[in-house]
Give the backbone structure.
Amino acid sequence: MGTNLPKNFSDKALILDEDPLLSEAEIQSFHQGNHARLYEKMGAHRIHRKGKTGTLFRVWAPGAESVSVIGDFNGWTADAHPLGLRQDYSAIWEGFFPEIADQALYKYHIRSKYRQEALEKGDPFAFAWEEPPKTASIVTHLNYEWQDAAWMAQRSGRNALDAPLSIYEVHLGSWRRKPEAGMRFLSYRELAESLVPYLLEMGFTHVEFLPVMEHPFYGSWGYQITGYFSPTRRFGTPQDFMHLIDTLHQHNIGVILDWVPAHFPNDKHGLSEFDGGPLFEYADPQKGFHPDWKSCIFDYGRHEVQSFLISNACFWLDKYHIDALRIDAVASMLYLDYSREAGEWTPNQYGGRENLEALSLIKKLNETVYLNFPDVQTIAEESTAWPMVSRPTYLGGLGFGMKWKMGWMHDTLFYLSKDPVYRKFEHHQLTFSIDYAFSENFVLPLSHDEVVHGKGSLIDRMPGNDWEQFAHLRLLYGYMYGHPGKKLLFMGDEFAQRREWDHESSLDWHLLQHGAHQGLQHWVKDLNRLYRSEKALYQQDFTHRGFEWIDCTDHNQSVLAFLRKSLELHKPEHCLIFLCHFTPALRHHYRIGVPFGGSWKEILNSDALHYHGGGQGNLGCVEADPVPAHGRPYSIVLTLPPLSVLVLKHGSAP
């Protein structure tokens, strides 16, 4: 593939740096775990030196006896292009070669102090890799003429905790494929042409990509990374990926990347035993081997590894204008006994199970990110009850901006899996989430993890006949958009993909020929439209002042009624009422208390015919009576459609 440079770039634009010198202060920072921009110094860089244009290589390999660069430019011959060990304590090998050109394929040939056989390793800092199953790194540059200045200038507001975040989670290889070309992947540039209009149509504010960093095994979905500084070549070049992000930003859509600092694969060309012995990973297998994923765990206590990981996080925010990082598998980093039985793990120095080194790294990472990129977010996938995950480090927290609310997801899906007859006995599964809703800055995730590994699709996990399954899914999404917290929905769930997600094939877009699937898609569009237009739904997501129960005790009829409120909560038009009805019965004359008299408009009804519902409702508006109910001076009487969500907004003051 070509580099796809803008037309106004000259040949000189192929040069990334005049000469990225590595100072004593930077070497010290690297070895202290404080260097956040190693990507500007390490790896392969196209530079000018002594009047010549060539490639400068730098690699950290303290266990090496010798290092040379092999590639298509020397027939993959060892020692033809040797690197020299710097005359300091850095353990960095480097060399400049004018004859090694842009787009050259290369690896490092390493003779180790620890083993007899030589190693051939990809570059830990490579900006590009060959498309798998090939494994060479590629000499390249990251020049690109960004057109997203308007977005970058105002994204702090778009990413703020009091802004609407409606996230569409996407796996790039299976969102859509090219049927006329043997079902091949869409390229980054083709995704810019098709994914961006779809996100605009659906009304999502952000898109989250499963890991795009280079990974040898496609079936890992990107979670087994070898090329931490390279977008996968499966879909194009670095500039192609930049074009996708740029296009999203130009249409006011934020970009979140999944990022994986918890583990890495043991492929021979990757980071595992990089210089012949444990370097990036813990030497102790009780700390350095992940039993679930059969992968290596980063040595979080090694300062150079800290610099590597922190630099990698900053790299995507800096060079690719990424708006947020969702950090994968944080719980596996925090606990030494994660997925381990007694005797399979070593306690920390205080006898506890917490990984103190990982804790230190996480806090330093978040402090560094927010110091250098104050308008982005870090989001933790943390599945335990670790306290203060999304609280600042100066208050004793881990320093993340937000955290996935896994408990809400598990409890809600468990509740909905029950036959409606028995739901009255499980009512607490719904109400419990509010008890801790404001202890963290939560994202409500209906992610890829809920539609894989034999769990089936979301629609097929809903009970009842076909009509009831769709009604359940509309109810689930309506309840999610009313519940405090930011929103995340995995691709395909917005139109009720029937099959369990398969990374080897496209989503089943043909389902949209059918009314029920169309109706659900319309419902998600309208939920996003309402969510973005009503401050009550996002402005106070992370404070109790934005939520108030009307009635959470009607377990016999399986109904929840609650208020969402904006900062202007004294104004009637700045609050919304949600009625969530979790049985297939049609209920007439259902009375709830309301805070204001006058008209209450039914602004959304999941049972509307437009959504393929049954068409039951309240004719668009109800009038409040001066009849006290639920501790309020006024009340309204409603018809509750089966398995439905009603959203009401005050129409006029009394």
In short: The longest strand covers residues 52-60. Residues 405-654 form a domain with the Immunoglobulin-like fold (CATH 2.60.40.1180).
